[in-house]
Amino acid sequence: MDEAKKVAVQMTAEEKAQYEAFRKAQERKSAEEKKKQERDVYRQLVSEAVDDVFPVLQEESKELAGLKRNTYDRFRKALELKRQIFDVKTEQRSHTFMNADGTRRITLGNHVTDGYDNTVEEGIAIVKEFLNSLAKDDESKALINTILRLMSRDMKGNLKASRVIQLRRTAEDLGNERLLEGVRIIEESYRPELSKQYIRAEYKNEDNAWVTVPLGMTES
User: Fold this and answer.
1) What backbone phi and psi angles, to 5 degrees, belong to 49?
2) Could you tell me the pLDDT band of residue 172, with boundaries at 50, 70 and 90?
3) 177 near 168, Cβ under 8 Å?
4) What are the φ and ψ backbone dihedral angles of 96, each rounded to 5 degrees?
5) Which long-range contacts (CB under 8 A, 24 or more apart) does 165-169 make?
6) How many Cβ atoms are within 10 Å of 198's Cβ, its own excluded?
7) Which of 120, 196, 127 is nearest to 158 (CA)?
8) Domains of the chain: which residue ranges?
9) Is residue 180 a contact partner of residue 171, using CB atoms and an 8 Å limit?
10) How many CB atoms lie within 10 A of CB 9?
11) Average pLDDT over residues 154-166
12) What is the side-by-side order of every strand in the sheet holding 94-98?
């Protein structure tokens, strides 16, 4: 086999510069093509993974939904009997059932989202009116900041019910009737909303501590 021969080529400085520019352009093009191929491989890998896993997750979701319905159906009679036996109307939003030896328990309930009707704004306005009436010394500024924190809103623009309770205690401590009126309006405007149902299953381990059984994809 003939050995490759090296050939010396005479180039002017301008020709050499053009050649170097051409060579670098080719290298960039080659590198870009390689990166594009890698991106295509990545997209294909992701697409195949999604298509493979999605039906399994979809089927699992159906099974979990079925288990949830069956669980509520199984305890529906117990809930009805509980209401008959105790004959008490209650705002209870969760119910916990335990086995005879106290080693397993299941809780059925609804998550609650804080909500208010439009009269809440009048209550807030009255509270702010009270804040504006305070003297502007350091002590009153601290109180103003405390009350404003209690009236801070969540991402949906609602007050937190737990903070309204704290606001009520603060108003009672201050004993200002106008402030109490504002707090009463806020409390009366409270309209909690029941969101999705949940099921929690727990068992006692060897240390006699309750352990939660993971029932959702976000739990582990």
Assistant:
1) -65, -45
2) very high
3) no
4) -110, 130
5) 167/127
6) 14
7) 120
8) 15-89, 91-114+192-220, 120-188
9) yes
10) 7
11) 86
12) 94-98, 104-113, 193-204, 210-213
Q: Is 178 helix (H, G, I), strand (E, B) or coil?
A: helix
What's the mean pLDDT in 155-160? 84
CA 87 and chain centroid, separation: 37
Model pLDDT, residue 217: 63
Q: Which residue has the tokens 């328990």?
A: 105
CA-CA distance, 71 to 90, in Å (whole number)?
22
Whether the pLDDT of residue 43 is over 90: the answer is: yes
Taking the C-alpha atoms of residue 157 and residue 127, their distance in angstroms, rounded to an integer, is: 17
In DSSP terms, 97 is beta-bridged to 106
C-beta separation of 103 from 203 below 8 A: yes
By residue count, the chain amounts to 220
- For 44-100, the pLDDT digits (tens) are 999 999 999 999 989 988 888 888 888 888 888 888 888 788 765 555 678 889 999
